Amino acid sequence: MTSTSSFHAIAVEPFPEIKEGGSITAAITDALAEQGQQLQPGDILVVASKVVSISEGQYVELSTITPGPEALDLSTRTGKPAEVVQLILNESTSHYLATARGPIIARHRLGYQLTSAGVDRDGAEGAWLLPDDPDASARRLRDELAEATGVRVAVVIADSDGRGDRRGATVLAIGTAGLAPLRVTEAPDSGKRQEETLADMVAAAAGIILGQRGRGVPVVIVRGVTYVASDDGMSSIMHLNR
Q1: Most buried residue, 14, 24, 56, 69, by most Cβ within 10 Å?
Q2: Whole-angstrom Cα distance, residue 37 to residue 43?
Q3: Residue 237 maps to a domain
Q4: What is the C-alpha to C-alpha distance for residues 201 and 118, in angstroms, rounded to an integer?
Q5: How would residue 94 be classed by pLDDT, with cut points 50, 70 and 90?
Q6: CA 121, CA 60: separation in Å to the nearest integer?
Q7: Interatomic CA distance for residues 170 and 199, integer angstroms
Q8: Do β-strands 8-11 and 219-223 pair in parallel, antiparallel, or remain unpaired?
Q9: Residue 103, preceding peptide bond in cis (omega within 30° of 0)
């Protein structure tokens, strides 16, 4: 496979507000038209998981959540609302506190290790969960874009995440379509082979733009990255599924 020597990232903006049931594909094509931008074969569209969750109706009203004893204890220790903590427990299979006061690092039911199991609090009344099946969401968006534009691209669904060993957040991939999530590199002198999570690298590159929260850019085109086409999805490399 030819290696990547350069690439660039393009914010898809201005991006219209997405509401429950709204079409991300239509929003992308409208924004591209306003930009005078066109998709190119081989482009990778990195899409923030939040807009996918909104489109798919992954909103939970906190008034519908009854915290259990463990959630109440964690709420006292971390200062998080007990209802939000209960959602984190509901969405995860295990968890630990990075410090005595948090954050809560949880193993999401899909296998991802994420801060707060990917639960994104929305004010005092609700929270957003991750898409039910991010790989399927990525495939659906990829296919819709191909039909709408005639161009076959890859799609990465990305989520912001912190780490237990440091402050701050980064961006990682939780769903892919059209792009093999792993790439294998080999040193010519030693023959040593290394698996690299290319999907995470692409998500992090786009995150330089996605992470500017006040800008309102949930979709970024990453152009020029060499990759192997595949629909294996991120689920194919999760330890949970091995």
Answers
A1: 24
A2: 12
A3: yes
A4: 19
A5: very high
A6: 10
A7: 13
A8: antiparallel
A9: yes
Picking from 128, 152, 178, the residue at the C-terminal end of a domain is 128
Tokens describing residue 184: 């294998």
| Residues 15-22: contacts with CB under 8 Å, at least 24 apart | 15/216, 15/217, 15/218, 15/219, 18/51, 18/54, 18/55, 18/218, 19/54, 20/54, 20/55, 20/56, 20/57, 20/59, 21/55, 21/57, 22/54, 22/55
- Per-residue model confidence as pLDDT tens digits over 135-145: 999 999 999 99
Mean pLDDT of 37-63: 96
Q: Count structural domains, the chain.
A: 2
pLDDT at 189 over 80: no
* Dihedral over Cα of 214, 220, 222, 223: its sign: negative
Distance in angstroms (rounded) separating the CA atoms of residues 18 and 46: 16
Closest C-alpha to 39, from 117, 119, 148, 123: 148
* Spatial distance between the Cα atoms of 182 and 164, rounded to a whole number of angstroms: 24
Same domain, 23 and 88: no
Please state whether 167 falls in left (phi above 0), alpha (psi between -120 and 50) or beta.
Answer: beta
Angle, vertex CA 118, rays to CA 28 and CA 163, nearest 5: 110
